[in-house]
Amino acid sequence: MQILLPASVAQVIAQELRKSGRRETGGLIFAEHIGGETFKIVEITTQQHLGTSVEFVRDPVEHKQQLDTFFERTGDDCTRFNYFGEWHSHPCFPPVPSGQDLRTMRSILEDPNVGVHFLALLIVRLVGSSGLEISATVCDGGGLYQPATVFIEVQPVQHQKRKRFRTI
């Protein structure tokens, strides 16, 4: 699976990581299915309650509200935009999923109220002031965990119009 991460969303993640410091933070991921096994992240949320330096505990009530808001805003167009998974940070550890992270993803997949067939989990860590180290793992309904590739899209450069001078 390929995951496209727009530069604007990467900037939001980096900003959230700077704000949370050494405490874990995270939230939901919403994506658009581009085609085949390619998805483009269109939006992330950030949970209001931060974790500790070693743990992030998701808040299902807050996430339900965020899901409802997203689907209302996108007109419930689940064939195009959908809940894609979750993200959180590991500011003090390598950005790889822990056993607890994988168990949490499994429990979300097994919840009949969620109704998804797979989930992506992004674990992120700030490098320097704005760089990101990212791992992506996809968990499917059959109990398999597979790595995914994340491509951070480059933000286009805005060119300013040059003034032309006439020489005499």
Describe this structure in words.
The chain is α/β, with parallel strands linked by helices. It has one domain: Cytidine Deaminase, domain 2 (3-Layer(aba) Sandwich), CATH 3.40.140.10. The chain has 3 helices and 7 strands; from the N terminus they run βαββαβαβββ. It has helices at about 5-20, 60-75, 100-110, and strands at about 1-5, 25-35, 40-45, 80-90, 120-125, 130-140, 145-150. It has a 7-stranded mixed barrel. β5 and β6 (about 130-140) form a beta hairpin. The longest helix is centred in the first third of the chain and has 14 residues, at about 5-20. The protein starts with a strand and ends in a 16-residue tail after the last strand. The model has no long low-confidence stretch (mean pLDDT about 85).
In short:
This protein has 168 residues and is α/β, with parallel strands linked by helices. Helices cover 24% and strands 35% of the residues.
What characteristics describe this protein?
168 residues, alpha/beta, 7-stranded mixed barrel, 3 helices, 7 strands, 24% helix, globular
Q: What is the first-to-last residue Cα distance?
A: 60 Å
CATH classification class? Alpha Beta
* Number of helical regions: 3
Determine Rg (CA atoms, Å). Answer: 18 Å
- Low-pLDDT residue spans: none
**CATH T-level fold name:** Cytidine Deaminase, domain 2
Total beta-strand segments: 7
- Indicate how many domains the architecture comprises: 1
CATH superfamily membership: Cytidine Deaminase, domain 2
Multimeric organization: single chain
Kindly estimate the percentage of residues that lie in beta strands according to DSSP: 25-35%
The dominant shape is globular
